[in-house]
Amino acid sequence: MLEIDGSIGEGGGQILRTSLAISALLNKPVRIYNIRMNRPNPGLRPQHMASVKVLADLTGAELKGLEEGSTELIFSPKGGGVKNTVIDIGTAGSISLLLQAITPYCIFTGSRVKLRIIGGTDVKWSPPIDYIKYVAAPLFKKMNIIIDVNLVKRGFYPKGGGVVDVSFHPCDELKPIQIGEQSKILQIKGVSYAGNLPLHVVKRQAESAERVLKESGLIPANTPIEILQEEPVNVLSPGSGILLYATMDKDGLLGSDSLGEKGVPAERVGESAANSLISQLKTKAGVDQHMGDMLIPYLGLAAGSSKIYTSNMTLHTATNIMIVEKFLNVKFKVLGGLNKPSYIEVEGRYLNQLR
């Protein structure tokens, strides 16, 4: 049984999600201790327990220590098959973070897996579901990971109630990728949205983002900028947000997002997303900091040499690297450093060599 110290690196829920994702994929038990010990409220919280329960259901895993506040968990997968199912995370638990935990297992079941997931589509401390659809999924496809994401209904904090249909295509083998420094912005797209709020909120978010992008001096005047303005929808809790993403000339794809908050003008929301994208574009990186983090397990599982250039090497990414190295017995090389634009490379391994 592999043992993982949950207090290393960023010491949060990311360690739990990555460890369980690879444990389920390899069908190998894992013991995680010191779970979230670096946090003000250590141990498992309801949103973490949801991911554990879902993966346990999908894999037929035996669990020990699954209770709120627990700082130790033993997860022993049994390799059960996945059936088409409905997953209700409860309230506004992040659907995007749940997808990070279950995707590695779901793509390697040998058949298509279709899930309906109910929870939060646009919540703090996690990428919005549009990021998964418009940024993560296209980059995953370059590695032979095909995921169809269909947003049925948005769900904001605190009541959630968002609905997303996800279809995971079966994958036999991952392809290594090379996404280095970029030299040209091909286009910028985005989506501005709201629930239980006036249409002018959507328009102000989009227009302020476009204004900041055009005034930055970084983006050539002939670069297409298209930000979709969604009609506001009925939701359980009001909210708004915006996603921007830039397609680059050498397979690069950078995303940025911002969520609306009570008392924060819609213009500030749009400006925040635009300024974040601009700062990433200045690095000429091929992937943003979220994808730099999310790609790590797949790079280790893609036989051959992979290399990515991320706009910011976060502590989340560094922690993910530590976990993946321990599980897969691979060695990542990082040229750059923490909180800096960085190259990350690895010689991945075939999955059938690890099982």
Automatic annotation (TrEMBL):
The keyword Acetylation does not apply. Its main location: cytoplasm. Residues 8-334 form the RNA 3'-terminal phosphate cyclase domain. Keywords: ATP-binding, Cytoplasm, Ligase, Nucleotide-binding. It is an enzyme of class 6 (ligase). The active site is at residue 316. Its EC number is 6.5.1.4. It is found in: Cytoplasm. One of its GO terms (molecular function) is RNA-3'-phosphate cyclase activity. GO terms for cellular component: cytoplasm. Residues 183-281 form the RNA 3'-terminal phosphate cyclase insert domain. InterPro entries: RNA3'-term_phos_cycl_insert, RNA3'_phos_cyclase_dom, RNA3'_phos_cyclase_dom_sf, RNA3'_term_phos_cyc, RNA3'_term_phos_cyc_type_1, RNA3'_term_phos_cycl-like_CS, RNA3'P_cycl/enolpyr_Trfase_a/b, RPTC_insert. It catalyses: a 3'-end 3'-phospho-ribonucleotide-RNA + ATP = a 3'-end 2',3'-cyclophospho-ribonucleotide-RNA + AMP + diphosphate. GO terms for biological process: RNA processing. The keyword Zinc does not apply. ATP binds at residue 100. It comes from the Archaea. CDD domains: RNA_Cyclase_Class_II (cd00874). Pfam families: RTC (PF01137), RTC_insert (PF05189). Catalyzes the conversion of 3'-phosphate to a 2',3'-cyclic phosphodiester at the end of RNA. The mechanism of action of the enzyme occurs in 3 steps: (A) adenylation of the enzyme by ATP; (B) transfer of adenylate to an RNA-N3'P to produce RNA-N3'PP5'A; (C) and attack of the adjacent 2'-hydroxyl on the 3'-phosphorus in the diester linkage to produce the cyclic end product. The biological role of this enzyme is unknown but it is likely to function in some aspects of cellular RNA processing. Belongs to the RNA 3'-terminal cyclase family. Type 1 subfamily. This is RNA 3'-terminal phosphate cyclase. It comes from Odinarchaeota yellowstonii (strain LCB_4). The gene is rtcA.
